[in-house]
Design goal:
The chain has 303 residues and is an alpha/beta fold. Helix content is 44%, strand content 21%. It is globular and about 75 Å long.
Amino acid sequence: MDWTQRIRLRHLQLLISLAETQNVSRSAELLHMTQPALSKWLKDLEADMGVELFERHARGLRPTHYCEVLLEHARRIRVDLDRAREEMALLLAGSTGYVAIGGSGATIASTVPGAVLALLKAMPGARVDIVEGTMDRLMEMLGRRELDVAVGRSHPQYLTPLVESEVLYAEPLHFVARKGHPLHRLKSMDWDDLYRYRWVVFSRDTPARTLLNEELRLAQRSLPADALQSNSVFASFSMLTASDMVTIASQRSIAQYERMGALQRLPMRFSSAPPVMMYWRNDTSRSTAVAQALQCLRDLEAP
């Protein structure tokens, strides 16, 4: 018999628990079942599949490559079921739909809120969750179905067969410092001037950090050894307003700070910058709320 015909949702929960605890006794305790019953279930499943799902060792279990593949699907099914339960509860409570939108950098302060307001105007009963994070984290959440839409800078690694994308707008990056910073008094500026002050940079593997690395490579420079690393735009800006540090940022992300007289762009503009994109999965049918959210993003950034 095909093992997929015998497996149940409860079995997926058992598998996930074993992978997380890596201990049969601990999982049996958490799942309110006996250790022999759990061990027998695992042994029978491995026999049906014809592969070993866990390596046994003195300290417990270690998932094999076969198990990791099965776990990816099991976790996806669990997220889908959790999402179905939440959406059903929302519908029973009078909601017209649900969408989870993530944004990074400047998009969380302008693009995403603007699109959400437009969505709620078109669908007053919709439920919306907003998530802020770096693009690598948001794309991981998108892959796990914890997000419906992610908005942020383009990066080649995000373009996979399971993800669709669309350009929203182009926006340059600048070096930024507080209002009244000594650098603002210079008539001209070069890299040596920037190196006199400590930098705050984005986390590794983020589009903005990749762009900074490329800009430094073209200028035959390297990242300062004392540079701070931050994945929070707001934390970076808070440090800038209280010190002589410098960072890189997009025009939109600093617009409000410039209006308040807290931050000001420096005359060091990047030679190029990847566009801001919206990403969504293409392996599932989109709900009305998700489709409306994508359209609101398009309309918001339409020329």
